[in-house]
Amino acid sequence: MKHASDARLRAEKRAQKHCTHWIGGKPWDGEADRHGDVYDPATGQVTGQVDFASPAEVDLAVEAAKDAFRTWRRISLAKRASVMFAFRELLRDHATELAKLVSEEHGKVASDAAGEISRGLEVVEFACGIPHLLKGGYSENVSTGIDSYSIRQPVGVVAGITPFNFPAMVPMWMFPLAIACGNTFVLKPSEKDPSASLMLASLWAEAGLPDGVFNVVQGDKEAVDAILGHPDIKAVSFVGSTPIARYVYENGTKAGKRVQALGGAKNHMVVLPDADLDLAADAAVSAGFGSAGERCMAISAVVAVDPIGDDLMSRITERVARIRVGPGTDERSEMGPLITGPHRDRVASYLDSGVREGATLAVDGRLHPVIGGAVKGAGEAGGGFWLGPSVLDHVTPEMSCYTDEIFGPVLSVLRAPTYEAAVELVNTSRYGNGTAVFTNDGGAARRFVSEAEIGMVGVNVPIPVPMAYYSFGGWKASLFGDLHIYGTEGVHFYTHGKVVTSRWLDPSHGGVNLGFPVNT
Ligand code: NAD
């Protein structure tokens, strides 16, 4: 009997997908020592295995990228742009397929996955304009007979380390610009949803990107540490939680690398008494529960300024009750499951701790129906990683449901007596990713925009993710480093600036002069 069941298990394993690294223009054909499981969060079942890179595989990927850099950095801007355009076309053609892969491993609903592909595509389109973006300045005759000009040059092999929640979009915040600028790239995606990175790699190959310019190493901390310590990697872009962002920033910079590390968030939505409360309630529910709250720009704290708290709450709870929770692959679903069983349990624990610390559990997501079945927890037969939308009311600043990033479908509602008290909450938060104000008073909105100590601010817009031609990034514990990601700051991150001062000899040269060069 035992033999039969072992054989069945082995057969099942063989039928599951296998995600490996992409090195030098093709899938890696070695045998990994360590692996991780990939799940379907809607069923809780393992659907495949992902190889975990050791330092040896990271070395291979960096070696391929280093080789490719020698030629890619010299490829003309026109040619680089034409490869970007080809990649853009392929991405558009395969957007539905890519979104499906994302849904299957992440759990987010199809429309949400399609949205992440289209926001990533916008960065690719921005990168298509690289010839214009890399234009420098030129000044004639800065001193007699001398001209000056500035150029931007690629930094070399760069790496991107990305989180589970946007397996396609967040890598595309990084590599289109890095590659368009003439760098070569090593991506270390989240081990929880590794397939999107491999599809992106094969689209690059089809677009005509030379082998080794884009590589993927799958894995966990071991791969990250190998990247941080690798002498041939010159810059690292990271997006993930705050403790790991800090770790990556500290260790990467200690090893002499340029690092931008984007961390976690706690985004406040301040609702002033004059706001359109239906608009505000729609926005709070959409931004709080879209992608099951697993977005770094999700609204997790609504701050209702007196006296509208009760009125706003009733409009929010009425909307939350109508959210359709179900598998990402079912087109009726508006919200999917969470990424893993342990994460689901951690998120649910804040409902208990919130109540213990004095909050009111106005909506308990553990009781919310799921399309196609009852709410089941991780590990239960047929159970996925489900948790419906929850609302905690009368939350106060010292409660852990407020101080911690929950990263799930839990909306905390706080009451503030005045505008000043609401802004104080926003500004004393340790995070500074996004915030929004809802009001019909232009003066109040303008003041909020000026006073909020936050990187991205929305006015009657709950998720103010900047377009590709601006740059994305927070303040405080939401970003370690100096430059935001994508947009023109992305171009600066992936290039060194150089200023050239040049003189073509003419008969007026004046002999040796040991003084410091000054204008004459
Ligand atoms: P995470 O920090 O756990 O993982 C991010 C990456 O770091 C992954 O590639 C992972 O493999 C790696 N990693 C995990 N633990 C590590 C360790 N101990 N040492 C070295 N590397 C490690 O984040 P996550 O759970 O995948 O993603 C959710 C987090 O990402 C949330 O905190 C969210 O706010 C944040 N996020 C931030 C932004 C932003 O723009 N600021 C965007 C998306 C997600």
What does it look like?
It is a single chain. This protein has 520 residues and is α/β, with parallel strands linked by helices. Helices cover 39% and strands 22% of the residues. It has 17 helices and 23 strands. It has a 7-stranded mixed beta sheet, with helices on both faces. Strand 6 (138-143) and strand 7 (146-154) form a beta hairpin. Helix 3 packs antiparallel against helix 5 and helix 4 crosses helix 5. It is globular. The protein starts with a helix and ends in a 17-residue tail after the last strand. The protein binds nicotinamide-adenine-dinucleotide (NAD). Nicotinamide-adenine-dinucleotide is lined by residues 161-166, 170, 188, 190-191, 220-221, 224, 239-241, 244, 247, 262-265, 296, 405, 407, 433, 474, 478.
